[in-house]
TrEMBL record:
Keywords: ATP-binding, Nucleotide-binding. One of its GO terms (molecular function) is ATP-dependent protein folding chaperone. The keyword Cytoplasm does not apply. It comes from Funneliformis caledonium. This is 7774_t:CDS:1.
Length: 200
């Protein structure tokens, strides 16, 4: 999960900062659903199918579909015929239950959002539903070499989402490009290689 603030007031699109948890993503929510339904199946049928890779994959696919359906519905159904030992698994998932299962993930996300904006006033000139599509369209135009009048003067100034560095002696990481630094850039630093001599 990453959030980006950008200045789009001119032909320069300048990414100002990025914040988020790079280890939190779609699979974390899917895993919560899968674990929930594995436990439900165990309670109902006293069977554990987690050792069966194919069965586990079928449930994961069904959970992904249910999660997507909850974006526009309050309730979703999961129906998997003969999921394990001939047992049909029919159940449902409400949006409220999905939010309950993932409450701490949402709270973690909100901490990053609040830290990112730090009480700054939001610019509401861009529809939030269109913001990502807007950015993706600009990036696609630049990468594809679009030479139309609207895109030929665009310059996208991107930034690093993580600090980049090298591990030096004593296991210390020495950053040479810090998070939220505009790329491309040069930042020369001198490092000396330490050779371990094997005397055997």
């Amino acid at each position: 999960m990453l959030s980006t603030a950008a200045d789009t007031t001119s032909e320069f699109i300048d990414s100002k900062s990025v914040a988020g948890d790079t280890h939190l993503g779609d699979e974390d929510y899917n895993n919560r659903l899968v674990n929930h339904f594995v436990q439900e199946f165990n309670r109902k049928f006293k069977e554990d199918f987690t050792i069966n890779v194919r069965t586990f994959r079928r449930l994961r696919i069904a959970c992904e579909c249910a999660k997507r359906e909850l974006s526009s519905s309050l309730k979703s159904s999961i129906e998997i015929d003969s999921i394990f030992k001939g047992i049909d698994f029919y159940t449902s998932l409400t949006r409220a239950k999905f939010e309950e299962l993932n409450q701490n993930l949402f709270q973690s996300t909100m901490k990053h959002v609040e830290k990112f904006f730090n009480d700054k006033e939001l610019n509401k000139s861009v529809n939030p539903d269109e913001a990502m599509a807007y950015g993706a369209a600009i990036q696609a135009a630049i990468l594809s070499g679009d030479t139309s009048e609207k895109s030929q003067d665009l310059l996208l100034l991107n930034i690093t989402t993580l600090s980049l560095g090298l591990e030096t002696t004593s296991g210390i990481i020495t950053p040479f490009i810090k998070c939220n630094t505009t790329v491309l850039l040069k930042n020369p630093k001198l490092f000396q290689q330490i050779l371990k001599i094997n005397r055997k």
